[in-house]
């Protein structure tokens, strides 16, 4: 079972069911089902999103969505082994696969919905799915 934890400020009228459905649907689309997994989704404002972008990406842009995988196993050594001190997804101490965090900027979700001429819940679904795809290893250029 995939557990979805949604963290948001009360001033953002976020539809948590849409977020959960987007995460579950993205897992199903990628044929990842019947596993014990967790994904965390946070909905933040512009200031927090800019802080995260600056801290982790060296820019001060207000992104619509950012993804932070729990463990990036793409940085393995030539032998295919993880550097010392890193567990990767193979050695789960409690059997729960924690994929990581998706962070959405609520003001940017609203702007994107207006720009794309879609309902806010539809944009929320699309951006959440996009973030989860990054957690699953899909990257665009």
Automatic annotation (TrEMBL):
Pfam families in the record: YbeY (PF02130)
Claim: Phosphoprotein is one of the keywords in the record: no
One of the GO biological process terms: rRNA processing
Calcium keyword on record: no
Keywords of this entry: Endonuclease, Hydrolase, Metal-binding, Nuclease, Zinc
Cofactor(s) the protein needs: Zn(2+)
Molecular function (Gene Ontology), one example: metalloendopeptidase activity
Stored InterPro entries: MetalPrtase_cat_dom_sf_prd, YbeY
Family note: Belongs to the endoribonuclease YbeY family.
Name the record gives this protein: rRNA maturation RNase YbeY
């Amino acid at each position: 079972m995939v557990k979805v934890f949604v963290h948001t400020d009360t001033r953002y009228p976020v539809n948590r069911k849409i977020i959960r459905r987007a995460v579950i649907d993205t897992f199903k689309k990628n044929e990842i089902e019947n596993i014990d997994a967790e994904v965390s989704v946070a909905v933040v404002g512009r200031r927090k999103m800019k802080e995260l972008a600056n801290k982790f990406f060296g820019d001060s842009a207000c992104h619509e969505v950012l993804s932070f995988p729990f463990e990036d196993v793409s940085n393995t050594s030539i032998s295919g082994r993880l550097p010392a001190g890193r567990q990767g997804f193979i050695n789960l101490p409690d059997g729960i696969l924690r994929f990581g965090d998706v962070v959405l900027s609520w003001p940017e979700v609203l702007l994107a919905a207006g720009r794309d001429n879609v309902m806010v819940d539809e944009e929320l679904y699309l951006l959440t799915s996009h973030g989860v795809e990054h957690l699953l290893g899909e990257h665009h250029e």
